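Narrative of activities, Objective 1.

The group set out to show that a structural description can be obtained from nothing but a protein's sequence at a throughput compatible with the screening campaign. Below is one input-output pair from the validation batch, recorded exactly as produced.
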Amino acid sequence: MASLQRIVPVAVVLIAIGGGLWLAAQRSSAGGAPGVLFGNVEMRQVDLAFNTEGAVGAMLHQEGDRVRAGDRLAKLDDATLLQVVALSEAKRDAAKAQLDLLLAGTRPEEIDRARGASANAAAALVRAEGVYARQQDLAKRDIASQQTFEDARAALDQARAQRVQAEAALAEAIAGPRPQEVVAARAQLRAAEATAALAHVQLSQTDLVAPSDGVIMTRVVEKGSVVLPTSPVFSLALTSEVWVRTFAPETLLSRAVPGAAASIRDDAGHQWQGHIGYVSPMAEFTPKTVETPELRTQLVYRLRIRVDTPDDALRQGMPVSILLPDGK
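Output recorded for this entry:
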């Protein structure tokens, strides 16, 4: 009984001390003293994949490697696409040569040849007309046969047709290509250029490059694997932007405002500066149907704090402490 009498006063004293410390902590949080929060480092992760299918020819990085934006990470076998590029470029060059040929017009030598052919056709027509006239006169006098007269008339008709054809060829040579032919040749060149450009794009897609600075988290496939578009090859944690996720009680919301500065410290003593980038408008970890005054003190709001100058000491998921500035 005496022992019980000694224990009760001690327990009362301990409860009083604990209550005093709790009240002091509440007053410190509600007063103007700096508020301390606890959170974890967050790095955005992206799954990197080729935008085309093929066999993996090379995997150039391992898990844990730090890479810079634009670094080549992996490559597909591009032997087939190299031939496609060569073929498309050859067709593009042929289309350009055809357009240049039309734009250059008819060569002077071709016009001279057409003039010569027209002159020959004119001379042949004169000769055929003379033969026909003589045969016609002989036929009227029944000296020449009817067959000879008909042959002379056919030769005259042929000479006239050849003269018309030669004159048309000369006119075409002088006029050059028709505008519609030039338009069609330009269209064919544009199509060939687009095909060549597409082939180059497809060839460039055989290289997988880092979109931003980061750390290789996962190496999904190995050399020789056949991958399809959107099949993950690497998982990359981006280090260009590092955030800290934490939760603040309602009593600290006046200090946790977007744009406010915050100090970040890890368990090893390293320290960084950051700024609050996001404050959730909704409370978490509270029953939706019960909001008594006692439970409202337990409401917390999610914060995201952006680290101003992240370095290699920050790791995905690392626990850190956040020191908020004094309340104003």
